[in-house]
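Thread: quick sanity check before group meeting

JM: Hey all, I'm pulling together slides for Thursday and realized we never actually wrote out the predicted structure for the chain we discussed last week. Dropping the sequence here so it's in one place. If anyone has concerns about the input, flag it before I start.
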Amino acid sequence: MIQQQPIRTNDILAGVRYEIRGELAHRAAELERLGYEIIPLNIGNPGLFGYRTPETMRLAMIENLGASEAYCHQKGVFPAREAVVMQQQMRGVMEVTAEDVFIGNGVSELIDLSLRALLCEGDEVLVPSPDYPLWSAAVSLNRGTPVYYACRPESGFEPDAGEIESLVTPRTRAIVLINPNNPTGAVYSRDCLEAIARVAERHRLVVFSDEIYDAMLYDGAAHLPMATLVHDTLCVTFSGLSKIYRACGYRVGWAVFSGIREHASDYLHAMELLASLRLCANVPGQWAVQTALGGYQSIKDLTAPGGRLYESRQAVIDAARRSEYLQLEAPMGAMYAFPGVRTERLNDFDDRRFALELLEKKHVLIAPGSSFNVPYRNHFRLTTLPLPDVIDEVFSRMEDLFDSMQA
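JM (edit): ok, ran it. Output follows.
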């Protein structure tokens, strides 16, 4: 019998991690099969916690199913793209047209396409640390090198433009911003964003602005679209239906190109070529875009005091304040918190070991902070989507585990 050799995988995967759905999630699935009830806080998936997509969006899809059986234009159906244009113009980005909008199968696909169209072997992309790890993975998968700029806890997770500029080299092609931020919930100030915009313009960097949580804001926090500040270089704004409209499974995202585009014709042609090769994005979900952007913005009710998102976030903040072991920069946007463990109380704390023990002993699934590409090992991310009583129970289980670790 011929001995079978292991099938080799692509070497490029050596630099790719996505631990949000990695080994811990696999172990959680095993425990569920054994009959344990796991509280899954590793992914921001609103539908999993009872959030519903607005009824008007579902109706818009149903009414247009007859127009959804053929491929659409590679950039997306025109009413969806035009609705995105109108939203951008309402926000002060006046020069965009439907030709500047690409609809994709979620923002994830568009991140991959935009980097694949741009990067050559060894090109560098400035990526925040912590980051949403898809960005790092997509840079690596497209032969680039992620170069991390720090968003430190002691600075409210806001980056420093001077430090970012010190990382620019002749190989730097782009800079990524995630605002509001995943995993920290930070919402960047105008001064911060303006300074980063000037850095990008001085060095002719493409600005990739991930704004998927743009309307998920708390306690008066204001989101400033990066495209309103970037004028003398190319800016690509990413958003979609997944989070604000609680429609993750629809897989509808968009990328909007603004700023200087005259020198970017080859890049935009490459984007259209790649979009054409995958034929088109999911068509039925695109019919929900116009209704979503032009209809009642129920996210404002959810994030206002008394709203479900607000109260769940507040439960996380309150629980962290009560803890002897945790410190938390209150998230001002998005649907996550990124607590840090006080190492003076637990000086040998390790985020991965803690996450595994929390899963095995307390049946709570979280994401270790180091999986978001930070150099420290005393943070973790959890979603703020569960109801407040569930959050209180989660933190009670954490406190029990912290106590046992100290004993």
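AS: nice. The mean pLDDT is 95. The two ends are 55 Å apart (CA to CA).
JM: adding both to the slides.
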